[in-house]
Structure formats: C-alpha cells, structure tokens
Design a protein that fits this description.
The chain is mostly helical and 625 residues long. It folds into 2 domains: 436 residues, no CATH class; 107 residues. It has a 5-stranded mixed β-sheet with strand order 2-1-3-5-4, with helices on both faces. The termini are far apart.
Length: 625
C-alpha cells in the first residue's frame, strides 16, 4: 500500500517533466477561462464593495503620499487600519485607467485567477496535473473565494501572495534551491504588508515541509530557512522602517495603533488582539463594540463561539467548509500511506506543505477570541483544495488496493453529506441540488466499493460522477455568490446573504450605505482641500466616493483614532481647508468619545446647523459669532 500511493523519489523526474497527456492543456485553459469569467462577469454591480478601502484607493489616485501610506484622504490625516499593499495595486490601477468600480475591483479578480493558476502549478509540480486541476477547481469554486476575489478587501492579494510563497517553496524543494526559498520569504513579507500577521499562519507549514523533505543536509536546510526568515524580515520591514523614520508630524496617523506606530498595530489590534480577544475598533484605546442595535456574538467579533466547530457553524460553514472534512480525512490517510516513504518523498512533502497550511490556519481561526469575520476563511481555501486534490489523486492511483478505494469512497460520501447539511440551511433555495448530489455521490461510492472504477470504460465515468457529486454543492453556492451584489464591511457568501443582510453590514451600512443626493451635490461644488469632515470612515467614505471630492474621516475607520486633534482641526478650519462638517457620522466603535467627540462639540458650539436633504450640515465658513 505504501509503495502504491507514494510519489516518486526526488531523484526521479518530476511529474511535470514527463510528457503531458493531451487533455492537460485544454483543461488548464478551461479552468483559467472559467475562473476569469466567474470572477469578472458583471463585476460592476458590486459598486465600490467596501467603501472604506475604496475611499483609500481613491485617495491614492489623488496623492502619491496617500498611496504610499494607505491614507483615507489625500490630505494624509489618518490611514486605514491595515498595511497598504492591496491599496497600492488598486490605487495604481485607478491612476492608469481612471478611478471607477472596474479599476478598483478588476485587480482583485485577476488576483483570484492568478491564485488559481499558481495553485495548479504548485500542486502539479509534486503531484501531477490531475491533482493540480482538482486543487485549482477547488479554490475557484469555494464560495468565499468568489466573494473576496470580487471585492476590494485585502484578502484577495493576501491569498495570491501566500499561494505564490507556497509555489516558491515547492520549487525550492525540488533541488534544495536557496533562491526559491528566499523568494518564498519575500512573498510572505509582502503578505505582511497586505494583512500583517495573518500572512505568517502558513510559515509553520512552509518550514516543516522544507525541513523534512528538502534533498540536502540538515545543516544546509537549517541555514537556508534562517536566510528565508531574513528575506521575510527585509521584505516586510522596509516599509515599517520608512514609516518609523518619517517625521510623525509629516505623515498620517497609523489608524488602529495606540502609539502611531506600525509595529503596535501589527502586534496589537491586528495581531495578538485578534487572537486573544483584545481587539479594538481603532486607535486611542477604544473598546470594540458594534454600532447601536447590533450585538457581537460571544467568543469573537461576528464569528460565533470559539472552538473546533466554529468553521462548521452557521456563520462560517457556507463560506469555505464544503471540502474541509474530506481534506482532513485525506490528509490523515495520505500521511499514513506514506509513513514508510523516504524522507524526500514528494507526496508526503506536498501533504506536509498544504496540509500544514490547512491545519494551522483552521486551528487559529477556530480558537481566535478577538475580532474575526467569516470571510477570513478565504485564506483557508488554498490549503483545503490542494490537500484534497493531492489525496484524491493518490488514492485514485492506488485504487487497486481496496483500502484506497474505501478511503476515496469515504471522501466522496463525507463531502456529499456535509454539502447536504450546508444546503439544508437555506431550505427554500434550489432544494433539488442537495438531493441530486446525494444520488450522484451514492452512485460513485457504490462504483468505488464494488470495483467498477477498475473497469476500463467505467473508470472515467465513476470519476466524473464522483466529482460532480462532490463539487455540486460548493459550485452552486459559488455561482449564487457571484450572481449577487455585495457591499459593506462584512459580506457573506451564498444565495441568501445579499437578500437577508446576513452579517454586519452585508448590504448597506458599515461602509455600504447610500448617501443623500442633495448632500453629494453640495460637496461637488466645493473647492477646498476637503469638501467636508465627518466622524469615522464608515459614512464619510460614501460621501467621498459619491461626490468625487476629498472628505476628512475624523478618527479614521471607527472615529476613535486621535487624528486630527481638536487643535489641528481648528487650524484646518481657520485656513479654509474644510468647507462643511457633516453630522450623523458614526463616531463608530469609539462611541463619539475622544477626539471625534471634542471636534463635534466644538463645531456644534461655534457653527449654525442647516439641513441638506435629510442630513444636518455645518458650514465651517460661517461662524455663529
């Protein structure tokens, strides 16, 4: 059994080196074209997606300095509460093609196509084109992938950088290449500049796979890994150093930090705070709390209870768990079947790499007690898809052994049953799908158990029927996700998400609300540095995007960052830099306290209100004195 399911020794030609079957090229082309169609079709219906990041990308099209720092406005008062890598790409796209929904979102969709293609290439190199195609299709047809690759959150580019890092590790494994291992470190470093410590979740898997399976001495493996760690530090640290050395008075405030530094943001609000439950909605020490009328679930921000079942819960299950049970079983089976293989065995190396990615990421997401959103699971999808693709391919190759056929049948059956459960959570939507996949899977399971797969003409039929049964559920949810328009800070996938507003601001609010037309017209006619100021970015982002004029988001994302100070804001007003103050902004999770509250009080005391449409506005050129 071990020799049947083991991949070739490292000294033998890699799978890609042999002559490819005639079906490979058209299959890969179909995979990439289908993925592109899925992620790009009618993309403009999503609008600005998450207004918060769209506002920063817009600012980057007006100011190179804002682009570099990831500022929310071209005046560089405060940044987004994430590093700016994704904003660099979207901002440059807006500068080249003109700022629009398309120029904002197309780079994310292309990042999705590239992720699928790189995943195919990475899996193919160690496990052959069949496994690569299964892995690529598994990623492309994960609902949360269709959601986030059609969105402007940083997650799309995070996934691309992580998959690129894994591809480089695979290349390094082939010949113990220092160059490729260093490139893997660079990819992870830039992943840090996209979403900070979340990029490091794959590092244990990368280190384990290389330390175990690289075809060189132990001492050289250790030295190469230390060199790769240096590459991570340099590629992530150069931007941090520049920000630290830049005079604080001449750059924006680092939103989400308590001391205006990137490192505190990385290890505080966006790092350990996310894991251990000390998250804040912004800087200044504000405590995280949702807006009025919303209640965050216990055990994590909008992610339900922490624990092993979280990823299968109502909040998370439909996002990325469709293939997860089968991937876990396939990982265990693959490691068991290769337990006696040589140290450099390719199949085991691939399982350690992708299975390690799956296990570490799943455990961290399961037990995070800070802020976590279900769409984070897009980072789990490549590890899940690759692990299952590799395991399924190896079991299919070894199906002459009855044990391999049994495990393969279990994978199909478990996927079908879990897909049925997930589909049953939206019982009114296309109920025939869940029964169809049960029938298809039952036929495939029977064929595997009774050996029909070993007959020359029936083998491909069993394989196709099994794949259809296993992928029908996740495919249907993915297509429904891509067919719906999504907006706001916490979008959800699936057929009912947009209609029901599932999630915090799935449609409208939290960066997805509508702006008053009369107010937008008022701002369009301004010529000042900022057309208006408003507390928090959740509402002011919509004003900036709708009017095409800069808006100062007081206090950053949540209104709780100490930027600008009251004294600085008063100077802006005295210099004629801000025309209007718009009331009704969400002082956000800061509750209107701190700097945002001080500025609001000062405005109310010194300027007379007027009503524009349904909004209270203060003309800052007309003092009540």
């Amino acid at each position: 059994m071990t020799t049947t399911l083991s991949a070739p020794e490292h000294a033998q030609p890699a799978p890609q080196a042999s002559r490819k079957p005639s079906w490979v090229k058209p299959s890969v082309a179909g995979l990439l074209l289908g993925t592109g169609l899925l992620y790009l079709w009618d993309l403009a219906k999503t609008g600005w997606a998450n207004d918060f990041y769209a506002m920063a990308a817009q600012a980057g099209t007006w100011s190179w300095k804002a682009l570099f720092f990831g500022s929310l406005d071209p005046g560089n008062v405060v940044t987004v509460d994430k590093p700016p890598f994704s904003l660099w790409v979207m901002g440059l796209s807006g500068r080249i093609f003109g700022f629009s929904s398309w120029s904002l979102l197309v780079p994310n969709a292309l990042a999705g196509v590239a992720s699928v293609g790189l995943l195919y290439l990475a899996v193919r190199r160690l496990s052959g084109p069949g496994a690569g195609l299964l892995a690529g299709a598994g990623l492309a047809l994960t609902p949360v992938a269709a959601l986030m690759f059609r969105y402007d959150n940083p997650d799309a580019f995070l996934v691309l950088l992580l998959v690129a890092g894994a591809y480089c590790v695979v290349r390094a494994l082939e010949h113990a290449s220092t160059k490729w291992l260093l490139l893997a470190g660079v990819a992870i470093g830039f992943g840090f500049l996209d979403k900070m410590l979340q990029a490091f979740l794959v590092l244990p898997a990368f280190v384990l796979a290389y330390a175990v399976a690289a075809p060189t001495s132990l001492g050289r493996r250790i030295g190469q890994l230390f060199a790769a760690a240096g590459a991570v530090v340099v590629s992530a640290g150069w931007w941090i150093v520049v920000v630290a050395l830049w005079p604080a008075a001449d750059r924006p405030y680092i939103s989400g930090s308590t001391d205006n530094t990137v490192l505190e943001l990385a290890f505080g609000y966006n790092g350990l705070g996310r894991i251990f439950g000390e998250g804040r909605g912004g800087g200044g020490g504000a405590t995280f709390a949702p807006p009025s009328g919303m209640q965050a679930p216990r055990g994590g921000g909008f992610g339900g209870e922490a624990g092993l079942t979280r990823l299968f819960s109502a909040e998370f299950g439909g996002e990325a768990s469709w293939l997860l049970p089968a991937a876990i079983i396939g990982l265990a089976a693959g490691l068991w079947f290769t337990r006696r293989a040589p140290r450099t065995d390719r199949t085991r190396a691939a399982l350690l790499l992708w299975g390690g990615w799956l296990v570490v990421t799943a455990l961290v997401f399961s037990y995070m007690s800070g802020i976590i959103h279900p769409y984070y699971t897009v980072a789990l999808a490549p590890g899940t898809a690759a692990t299952l693709g590799i395991a399924a391919r190896e079991l299919w190759r070894g199906r002459a052994n009855f044990a391999a056929r049994v495990v393969l049948a279990v994978l199909v059956a478990v996927t079908a049953v879990w897909s049925f459960v997930l589909l049953a959570r939206t019982p009114e939507w296309q109920p025939w799908i869940r029964y169809a996949l049960l029938v298809l899977s039952a036929v495939a399971v029977a064929g595997l158990l009774f050996g029909a797969d070993r007959l020359r003409r029936l083998g491909p039929v069993v394989a196709v029927v099994g794949l259809c049964g296993a992928l029908l559920g996740t495919t249907s949810f993915t297509l429904a996700t891509a067919a719906a328009a999504h907006s706001g800070g916490t979008p959800s996938s699936g057929p009912s998400a947009a209609a029901s507003g599932r999630g915090f601001g799935a449609r409208g609010g939290f960066g997805g609300g509508r702006t008053d037309a009369a107010l937008v017209d008022l701002l369009k006619n301004t010529t000042t540095k900022w057309a208006a100021a408003q507390s928090g970015a959740m509402e002011s982002a919509g004003l900036a995007l709708a009017s095409g004029r800069p808006v100062l988001a007081i206090g950053g994302f949540s209104g709780s960052d100490p930027a600008p100070t009251l004294e600085r804001f008063r100077q802006y007003v005295a210099d004629g830099d801000v025309r209007y103050y718009v009331a009704g902004g969400r002082g956000g999770f800061g509750g209107g306290r701190g700097t945002s509250g001080e500025i609001q009080t000062w405005v109310e005391q010194n300027f007379a209100p007027l009503t524009v449409g349904g909004t209270t506005v203060y003309d800052l050129t007309k003092s009540v004195d």
